[in-house]
Prior knowledge:
Layout: H1 2-25, H2 32-43, H3 47-50, H4 60-81, H5 92-117, H6 121-131, H7 154-169, H8 171-183, H9 191-222, H10 238-252, H11 257-271, H12 277-305, H13 315-336, H14 344-352, H15 358-370, H16 376-409, H17 411-426
Amino acid sequence: METYVIVLAGFGALVLLTAWLPMVLRALPLSLPICCVGAGAALSLLPAVSGLPLKPSEHLGLIEHATEGVVIISLMGAGLKIDRLIGWRRWAVTWRMLGIAMPLTILALAVLAWALLGVGTATALLLGASLAPTDPVLASDVQVGHPTEGGEDEMRFALTSEAGLNDGLAFPFVNLAIAFAGSGTLVDLSWAHWLGVDVIWKIVVGAALGGLIGRSLGWLTFHLPNASKLSRTGDGFVALGATCLTYGIVQIVDGYGFVGVFAAALALRASHHSHEYHRKMHTYAEELERLLMMILLVGFGAALVAGGLLTGLTLPASAFVVLALVVVRPASGWIGLLGSGLPHDEKAVIAFFGIRGLGTVYYLAFALNHAPFDAPDLLWATVALTVLISIILHGVTVTPVLRFLDHRSGRDTQIGQLEIPLQQEAT
Length: 427
């Protein structure tokens, strides 16, 4: 009973911090994820926590599904808050980051892992594919604001839309690593099956079916006769229902659920673009995402200390992490944005702030659950250090950097004007 009461009190404190900390940290060069990881590390010093089995390899299924859940909720929230309608030209920067920067990142990281860590090709490819996508969960500080808020600048839009899609588009390379780990040689792989099923079928089905579900839910929500519109309920948890329904249906027909959820969110938003109910659904998704993120990051901080998550770390792995964050991603992002017409400082921000987080953890747990890979402890240590440094590095720098660029471009004045009605609405 004593342990139960302690856990209950701790959960209550976590819920309160979920609500209060973002307001306290808004003006500081500090982020909510940093505080969560620090709290988890501090809790791990307690005798009741230090004795818990916190080694990731012993809980692969739990880690996979927990991170999967928070990622899909985050993808729904990201899709709902994007004001810009999808299009080839309107999303040109996004397509550059997905079509050029992400494949370059996967290739460079795989080669770097093979050369520095001495792992096999399958393991190197898994590490590259897991670390390439930016995280939609931990990237809220660099994303666009609430639905219909306006002032959607190119930097925040690019980072939001990229994070919304690249988590799903990294899946073909994770599946390729799993297939390679199972076959042992590139010759034995069925490349036609990988290209036809893992790349084309799963992506197309995810995008098309997700969009169809989103459009259908949009019709039910906004276009039924007035007495029957779902928007009249005022319930934000409709976003959770839409997320789970879309993800489940897309996965059942063997599509990429991550792609499907983001496509559904975009289609749902487009069905009545300016309706205020989008803000209510987004707010619910954002609050739920933030709570689940805090729980997982507290667990991550505890696993770092009490679970020995970094015990398999080596000096070459540390060098790999530093190169991945400060060389590979920024260089790949810069190459992808060449010719985009963006100012150099905005290109630098988009290329640098490729935050790694719970999506990376999900991919690693998923792959280790489906195939044997070399040096799993080294993989966990490398991924854990990457996520930890990314949380600290990007969390400390994002507020002053974006504030400086907003001030220089005059966007801070526009943002201040937009926040006034939001504050009045809150009061």
